[in-house]
Amino acid sequence: MIGMKKFDTIFRKRVIMRLGKYLSKNRIIELKGDNFSDALTELLQTCNISNDPEVNTSIVNEILEREKTITSYLGNGIAMPYIRRPISKPYIFAIGRCKNGLNFSNSGEHKDTRIVFLMIISTENEESYLTVLAAIARIFQNQENVDLILEGQSINAFREHIRLLFGTCKSIINTNKNSLNQFMLREAQKIAHANKCTTVLVFGDVLTGIFDFKEHSDNLSFILVTHKTDTLATTENYFDDVIYVHPFSNYRLSQARSAVIIGLTRGLLSQKDRVCCFAGLPQSNIFDTISVFDIGKEFGNSFSNNEDLLAEGIHPEALERLLAIAADIAVEGREGKPVGCLFVIGDIAKIKPFTKPLVLNPFYGYKEEDRNILNPFMAETIKEFSSIDGAFIVRGDGVIESAGSLIQASSEHAIQMPGGFGTRHAAGAVISAVAHCIAVAVSESTHQVTLFKDGKMMLFSDQSFSSPSI
Fold first, then answer.
1. Contact 339/329 with Cβ under 8 angstroms?
2. What is the pTM of this model?
3. 68 and 187 share one domain
């Protein structure tokens, strides 16, 4: 298991950092057409898959047909169509910009689409493409990144901005070497060593430019914690891994709790570790806070003595993605209104005896790849169904089995909950205990995200963080 986790971590890091090699300069173009079909045709011509025009036409028609089932519109004016084809490379990427916007159909749907990112996947690359797709989607879901792409007036500026976001160019952002930051970094390492810390969490949202971490100690693991994808592109060589978290608030260290939980799920951290946090106010460009905490003591008796936070059969990337979606729902709600919901992830055979449908299953009949939470186009669908009574039931690898499911267990399985937690949290606690799975609850009233395992709870999006500052 440890070896597999290490492999997953290395693979994920390489996926995020090395995507640029599949996107050559001649496949970054200005689109001439004003509709989705023409845009696909133009992008395919740059990919040189076949000299036969009918092959390209067939691919375009296949993508358009798929649009009728699940849209490739990601939001923020971005469309990300993808298709599998027998190609020599694992992936081929092509990206086009349409400054005036293009239509998906005659109805004018998604008229605000400005960027089309075409992804062609090798037919032999079945297992990893959703991880790659999610990594690319994360880049384009950041509005700052989209604005950067659109503001470049010339085609050369457009290409440079794309290369920057994909980590192949670092010349645009100015390096900011701040003497206070360098001093604080040296002190953080001293404090980390003195307290026998294993890891330093660096909160990258502090930065507005590049900060040189080359001086950090090889005896410590340095992990970047951020919600900005462009931070990675400019600092990729300085960190052992990256944890993406939702920016819940501007409070100092507000992201630490969720970062630690994600680190635990991915095997980057253990409950026996001590962690040093290196932080400051977001966008201040000054690191001014160093904190040290013991993970086991910080989270108390939230979980059993089992070091592995994951329940059996749950893939770390699936739980990480589920937590990100839950965080989005907690912060954004739905159509301006707060939403509460419950997710249950684990071994379906163990979960099913304790559930029954409240409504017709909206995910029934769809391909597994289309209803996998790693698929970035599923996020909006999940948010849309989040207001349905009942729970989302998710297989350990991320495939959604159902929504609107009632959690039912006998009175002997009842778990005493602290004051302020309602039936949704009680159901999450019970199902996590009896089915040996993980439940994630979003509170409609407090907007907190709570994770349950073995009937015990841990707050994922707690706004307060009690570690002492030094």
1. yes
2. 0.77
3. no
Dig out the tokens for 93 from the structure.
């990427």
Q: In Å, how far from its chain's centre is CA 237? A: 21
Please name the residues in contact with 305: beta carbons below 8 A apart, sequence gap of 6 or more: none
Compute CA distances 36 → 63, 100, 246, 436, whole Å.
10, 13, 32, 46
CATH code at position 329: 3.40.1700.10
CB 437 within 8 A of CB 422: no
Residue 104 sits at φ, ψ, to 5 deg, of -80, -30
Encode pLDDT of 383-432 as tens digits.
Answer: 889 989 999 999 999 999 999 999 987 656 667 767 667 889 999 999 99
- Cβ neighbours for 207, distance < 8 A, ≥ 6 positions apart: 176, 231, 285
Q: CA dihedral in degrees (236, 237, 241, 245; nearest 10)? A: -30
| Strand stretches in 386-425, DSSP E | 391-395, 400-407
Residue range(s) defining the domain that contains residue 135: 15-165
- Nearest 5°: the CA angle 246, 250, 256 is 55
Q: How many CA atoms lie within 13 A of 364 on its CB side?
A: 7
Task: Fill in the amino acid letter for 107.
Answer: S
Domain total of the chain = 3
**Spatial distance between the Cα atoms of 27 and 255, rounded to a whole number of angstroms:** 37
